[in-house]
Structures are given as structure tokens and as C-alpha cells.
């Protein structure tokens, strides 16, 4: 049986909780979370819309010294999830959107993490995403706490549903159009 493969790359600033979100999704203990150096890789079998799929999750480091690696992992991603910290006043969502858009993923997830902490987030997400919504990008937005796995799993489920339903279906009937060259009338000069 040929299973669909879905590539997901998780990006965002340093210390926003990208690894914790992934650990929560794959049912791994949050006690073992360490800062990602470079890149980390996880796989999970999932069912999306009655289809089985292999989800590969690439966890990128948010530290500036590793960001040059991010582009090579964003390439060919079906899903890019941008994680930001809701307990901070500002985010770099626009920066990460510009990085993601260069690789044309099917869907971009925007996930606010740490919603269980005091909310300090002031940015208006609709204003930030407005330039991309005008270009028909497919977004899934949400917020969670990596300490509540249900909220993380719900967000991933919505993102995966968007990726699978975003596949381009071939039309059942494709009309055949034939083009014929026009016959030129013979003319005589100066008649």
C-alpha cells in the first residue's frame, strides 16, 4: 500500500516552544525538552480524511546562527507551522512568513504557544497576515499550550486536513481543443 507522505517544517523565534509543541503532538514527555541545535526530525503515522499518511516533522532551531539551515528544510514542505510566543508583546511572524512563502507550501499554520501564561501579545494577526491573504495563501491559525496536548493535536489535525483537502484534483472531463491554421487567400499584387 502506497502511503501519502506529508512534510511539515516548524519554524519560529528562539524559545517560543517549537520543540515542546512537537513533543506534545507526538506524546513525548516535556521533561526531556532541550534547545534544538540545528535541526531535529520526527515521524508519525496519521490518519487524515480516511487516508493513512506518514508525517515527517522537521524541528528547526530559532537561533540566528542556525537560520541559514532553515531554507533547505523548508524546501518541498507541504505544511509550514510558524510558532510564536503569546506571552511576549511582539512576534516576528512577518519575517517567518517571508521565509516560508519562498518555498510555496500548501498550507501555513500560525500557532500561538504558551496561552496558559499571561498574555502579552499585542500584534493584530489579521493585519500581519493581510498581504498574504490577498495572495490566496491557505492559513490555519490557532493558539495552544504545549502543556495541553489536546490543543496541540487539534491544531495539527486542522493543518493536516487543510493540506490533504488542498490537493489539486484533476477534472473528470477535460475538453479537447483543436486548433486549425487559417488558410490564407492567395492575393496578387496591385490588382
Q: What is the secondary structure topology, with strand pairs?
A:
Elements: E1 4-12, H1 18-25, E2 39-48, E3 51-60, H2 67-74, E4 79-85, H3 93-101, E5 107-113, H4 125-133, E6 139-143, H5 149-165
Parallel strand pairs: 1-3, 1-4, 4-5, 5-6
Antiparallel strand pairs: 2-3
Keywords:
191 residues; alpha/beta; Rossmann fold; 6-stranded mixed β-sheet
Mean pLDDT: 80
Element pattern in H and E: EHEEHEHEHEH
CATH class type: Alpha Beta
- Structural class by secondary-structure content: alpha/beta
User: Helical amount among residues, as a percent range?
Assistant: 25-40%
- Strand line-up in the sheet with most strands: 2-3-1-4-5-6
Q: Measured on Cα atoms, how large is the radius of gyration?
A: 22 Å
> What is the name of the CATH topology?
Rossmann fold
Overall description:
The chain has one domain: Rossmann fold (3-Layer(aba) Sandwich). 27% of the residues lie in helices and 25% in strands. α1 packs across α5. The longest helix is centred in the C-terminal third of the chain and has 17 residues. It is elongated. About 6% of the residues have low confidence.
Short structural description:
With 191 residues, this protein is an alpha/beta fold.
